[in-house]
Amino acid sequence: MRIALAITHFDDLGGAQAHVAALARAFAAQGDQVLVLHGGAGAASPLRGAPGVEVQAVPALLRPVAPVADLRAIWALRSAIRAFRPDVVHAHSTKAIFYAGAAARSLGVPTIATAHGWVALLTPPFSPAARPAVAAAFRIGMAASDRVVCLSDHDLRVARDSRVAPGRLVHVPIGIADCAAQSRPDAVGPRLVTVARHYPQKDATTLVQALDAMRALPWQLDWFGGGPELERTRRHLTALGLHDRVRLRGDDPSVAEVLAESAVFVLATHAEGLPIAILEAMRAGLPIVASDVGAVGEAIAGVGTLVPAAAPAPLANALRTLLLDPALRAERGAAARSRYVARYREGPMLDALRQVYRSAARSA
User: Fold this and answer.
1) What's the CATH code, domain 2-177+345-363?
2) Contact 36, 23 (CB under 8 A)
3) Continuous segment of H or E residues that includes residue 149
4) Rounded Cα–Cα distance for residues 173 and 155 (Å)
5) Per-residue model confidence as pLDDT tens digits over 94-113
6) Which CATH topology does 191-343 take?
7) β-sheet with 246-250: strand ranges across
8) Does the pTM of the predicted model rise above 0.90?
9) Across the chain, what does the average pLDDT equal?
């Protein structure tokens, strides 16, 4: 097939960007022709040099609402789609869904939408009432798409309850490619790891407070993720005297290797869909402690430890229990790995998406 993937930007590498990059590589490896359209300069594009993948920046496709730039973005997207002649356009993130979808529909090309942040738009603490223009664009873009992909049961329930794109919803559980790097959580030192960008949606404050409560234990933490609040987190750690026990690694690409060398994965967050970082930890065979938000419970219920969001004491207690019990770490890590193999491998996701693409193309 000829598949065009669109996303608002590649300059800030989060879960949506990682998902799009993985789809592009995987479909290209299967012999499809793949074009990735993204906003911004894309200087940090994870697809630079990827075999079989054409990448095109659309600088006018920006996150903020900017009428002149937005019109330029639609025109540029339309020109790129017309030149590539895709069978489908699969758009990710709100503005890409709205503008790339509009450009594709004007050419008669079927559109698929995956909104990675719609839980934040439709549920507290990020209510769409605070951002009516974005919420309206989200709903219109979804309603105008030929298919709307939900990556988790939780997203599917939220979409149905919110009456988003009725009749167009399809459930395609997210998956990631397997990796040879596996942890032996019972055989390594007290090394914690988290993958969480420094944004208000995440909850750096709760994690730092939980670490402070465990200062008597000899733990070390690797913290992957950049973002606008990184320096604020650094100052908080310094003020508590924890800066020498936490390595703030920013957008370091060696996540898989460090996961395989760690004892426990932790994620403190206010709102989520289903974080890829959780799946990466499961794939590595790590025991997991995470905030019970979004689809996190769906992924790790019964194999990990769920704690309330914004609750430092329960988070610290759960981490302390695992750090002091190597046998429990081994048991939970093996269970997490088994859950990944059973539910979250990349192959079934790619097969299901291909069926969605073909169905949409036939309908068009």
Assistant:
1) 3.40.50.2000
2) no
3) strand 147-150
4) 10
5) 889 989 999 999 999 999 99
6) Rossmann fold (3.40.50)
7) 246-250, 220-224, 191-195, 264-267, 288-291, 305-307
8) yes
9) 92
